[in-house]
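Q: what does this look like with flavin-adenine dinucleotide bound?
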Amino acid sequence: MSEINKANKLPRHPMPEQDPKVRARNFDEVPFGYSEETAMAEAGRCLRCKKPKCVEGCPVNVKIPEFVGLIADGDFLAAAHKLKETNALPAVCGRVCPQESQCESRCVLGKKGEPVAIGRLERFAADYERAQAKMELPAIAPSTGRKVVVIGAGPAGLTVAGDLIKLGHQVTIYEALHKSGGVLVYGIPEFRLPKAIVQAEVDYLKALGVEIVESYVVGQIETVDELLERYDACFIGTGAGLPVFMGIEGENLNGVYSANEYLTRSNLMKAYRFPEYDTPIVKGKRVATFGGGNVAMDASRTALRLGAEKSYIVYRRSEAEMPARNEEIHHAKEEGVELVLLASPLRLLGNEKGWLTGVECIRMELGEPDDSGRRRPVPIEGSEFVLEIDTAVVAIGNGPNPLVPSTTPDLKTNRWGNIDASLETGATSMTGVFAGGDIVTGAATVIEAMGAGKKAAAAIHRYLEEN
Amino acid sequence: MNRIVAKEEFSRNPGVKMMQIEAPGIARKAKGGQFVVFRLDETGERVPLTVADTDPEKGLVTIIFQEVGKSTMALGALEVGDCLADFIGPLGRPTHMDDYGTVLCVAGGIGIAPTHNIAKALKAHGNRIITVMGARTKELLFWEDKMRALSDEIYVCTDDGSYGIHGLVTKVEQELLEKNRESGEIGLVIGIGPPIMMKFVCKTSEPFGVKTLVSLPTIMVDATGMCGACRVTVGGETKFVCVDGPEFDGHQVDFDEMMKRQAIYLEQEKVARELYEKEAGCCGECGGDRQ
Ligand SMILES: Cc1cc2nc3c(=O)[nH]c(=O)nc-3n(C[C@H](O)[C@H](O)[C@H](O)COP(=O)(O)OP(=O)(O)OC[C@H]3O[C@@H](n4cnc5c(N)ncnc54)[C@H](O)[C@@H]3O)c2cc1C
Ligand SMILES: Cc1cc2nc3c(=O)[nH]c(=O)nc-3n(C[C@H](O)[C@H](O)[C@H](O)COP(=O)(O)OP(=O)(O)OC[C@H]3O[C@@H](n4cnc5c(N)ncnc54)[C@H](O)[C@@H]3O)c2cc1C
Ligand code: SF4
Ligand code: FES
């Protein structure tokens, strides 16, 4: 225990960031990242536990004490390589993983003080490597002559491709959109995850020899069954890209967006740079976002950057129940996003031209815990109120994208439309067809999608060896 | 890839142009009723256009478009040999093929393009095709020969009487449906054109109880069912045009809501068009041509 106390004498190092007032009006990344000195000092806090708890908290079991130790020793490149042994996208994960509920939640220092800033260190090492332009290409096994097709270039698909190419298989990724990265390019905003980082990861895979074909919508131009005539195995990582609406009156009014549309316009299509970029977006002055996850935080913060005077988040439970990463809630509030908690929208109001003018909400209170263990919100009768808004963003969740399942008759899905696949191997009801990521689990996290990709890649490799 | 191999100007003002694009995969797969999305370049938006015709042997896809704003004007300014950054498809569901007996195709203006590929498929399936095609004025009519070739009966109209029958397509539709009362051979009406025209094609056919399909040109972003930009209300339910459509039972479509939604970006569209005209050194009078 004394060692823990000693380590905690040196408090966790904050990461310098843009001033909230300034950054709320630009799309540049919010935190600047650690300097070399700060990174070494923060890494120095790590006790290099014999039985590191943090590693158990990580869905892909990154060798945390080892990479942190290498940073403490000043060997940053080695730290990056150590990370990449288990995590192909450390620059991404360091930025978007919910560390507070994964690795950092288990760190022993957290018991008495604050955990080691594992996420920030991960980001530091990966950024250091990228800046050095010393991307080391790993050894690639001799060609096996086997061909694998990956559908969807999100975190799950990219992971599968990276692992299989290293094992000597030939890999082709088909991606529906014109840019690879999945949610990392169309959903998560530039200010949280610069697109250059995602591009670098995609370029890295190309350098390894992965063929990436964009603007190719599987199910439309070619079905899975047709692909199987040309490939020995198939991985489906098409994500949870189907926006869920609330099913309330007024949802088709002008100015009402799904979070997917709002974020895709802004991120993928760069509508924030209109008219330099052709795609427009409604730049509302008073914006309300419905929901309490990362998606809602991203949308409400994007609204500020597009010039909103008021950006509300309307959430039916309290702040403690919000599923978003703590850092995102913290950043959103700092930037001026107003949380309207314990409130739920009843209907959206519009004018005769079809434009949104407001939302009628009702106040909620928390009742008994529900299936998810969170206390169930119950409406308080007679507590209706109207929020005047001109733009609304619905961020209450996403369902599985149906294009591939609906065109693959032998592929079994569950009643929500998710592909039935083994969580251990990704095996589906079809021989040689594997699946993983959000299309199997429903909307989850980047690291879980990558974890599923890793397991599926191993299973595909075994399958190819046996068949 | 995505190379323009042929280009033809059908009308100068407003600009209506035809292009053939090299896209073998799409040419092989696309069926009547489906569409593509193109993107001009890195800063371009994703723009939906119907597949007007395909040549699977040569690997060519034909598109016909009216220059209504920046993207279609900039597309029209490209020449044979130029390439598009993206040409994605086929998207949407194909027209449902069935034995309808006789199909009455009512096509207005640019709607002649999608109607062609749908009628072609329905004809190949064994249906009899009656075509009513029209436009504001003679200059805006195109592909009369191709439509004539696949139609068993054809009526051509112009609003201003500059060619063919003087009057709206819905007038001829009304007459044909009256005549059909006894024989009842028309099993399906397909109405494609500007939204307001489609609304009236449906209003006209409704009292006759003949099923009517329309193809909805809603605003789209991804066109793969991911964003909901294209949503419309059909029979009280929200549908995504890009994956559930683009064809729907016209008697169930809330056209008024759809038309309001099409006006969301009017202001920005104007900004983009004016900027484009200035940069392209264009007066805006010629319908988008650079010269
Ligand atoms: C706005 C937002 C913010 C988020 N923030 C976080 C965060 O901070 N931390 C975190 O851990 N997670 C976050 N998530 C969740 C995380 O991004 C996802 O869980 C993860 O991206 C899932 O990866 P995936 O590979 O399964 O699918 P996706 O990332 O969805 O990728 C699927 C890909 O498949 C493509 N595709 C779909 N259909 C086809 C087809 N028919 N043919 C070809 N390609 C197809 C899609 O275009 C897409 O590129 C966020 C999600 C969103 C939407
Ligand atoms: C499934 C589908 C198939 C289509 N097929 C064709 C086709 O074969 N030929 C063709 O010429 N057009 C077609 N369209 C319409 C075409 O997509 C639009 O004309 C185009 O997006 C206009 O882009 P722009 O930048 O040139 O004009 P903008 O500046 O974006 O718009 C100019 C004007 O066009 C209207 N408009 C904008 N977007 C659309 C839209 N998606 N549909 C209709 N009007 C729109 C606006 O209200 C505005 O008044 C189709 C649309 C869909 C959804
Ligand atoms: S639990 Fe904390 S102190 Fe222990 S190895 Fe992991 S990061 Fe270091
Ligand atoms: S255009 Fe995005 S869902 Fe139809």
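The longest strand of chain B covers residues 4-11. The pocket of FE2/S2 (inorganic) cluster (ligand 4) is lined by residues B 220-223, 225-230, 240, 242 (CB under 6 Å).
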